[in-house]
Amino acid sequence: MKAKVHVTLKPGVLDPQGKAIAHALEALGFDGVADVRQGKYIEIDLEDGSGGGAEDRVNEMCEKLLANTVIENYRVEIES
Amino acid sequence: MKAKVHVTLKPGVLDPQGKAIAHALEALGFDGVADVRQGKYIEIDLEDGSGGGAEDRVNEMCEKLLANTVIENYRVEIES
Known about the structure:
CATH architecture of chain A: 2-Layer Sandwich
Order of helices and strands of chain A: EHEHE
Structural class of chain A: alpha+beta
Number of strands of chain A: 3
Largest interface: A-B, 34 and 34 residues
Oligomer: homodimer
Number of helices of chain A: 2
């Protein structure tokens, strides 16, 4: 079973990494880039038979470790 | 128009960051985690009227800046 987690900065939180990417794209000649935001993408392989409640468990992992919920949102998808 | 880009390490490339997350999850008492891989998730706001070929342009951004194609794969989705 695989869990896909997206961790993104909350709207309004400054994203210097995203700004750096936007500037670099402009310097490379890519026009029309209004904004860039960078987040994290985490794939977690869960052992089969770890039972139901996988989504709840991954949500708990996000709360405790993967995301800083003061400034970040997270989204969990489970693929069997 | 929004482009969503996932940049992930190619299979077989060592991922120390993912390994660190897996160990930390185990230390926190989460069992049944077989493997963790960490990638990047980048959202690019493209100005409207930047015309067709948005996907091609974002692919080019990935080739030139966003991904290291020696060790990373990328995936582009365009949302209008």
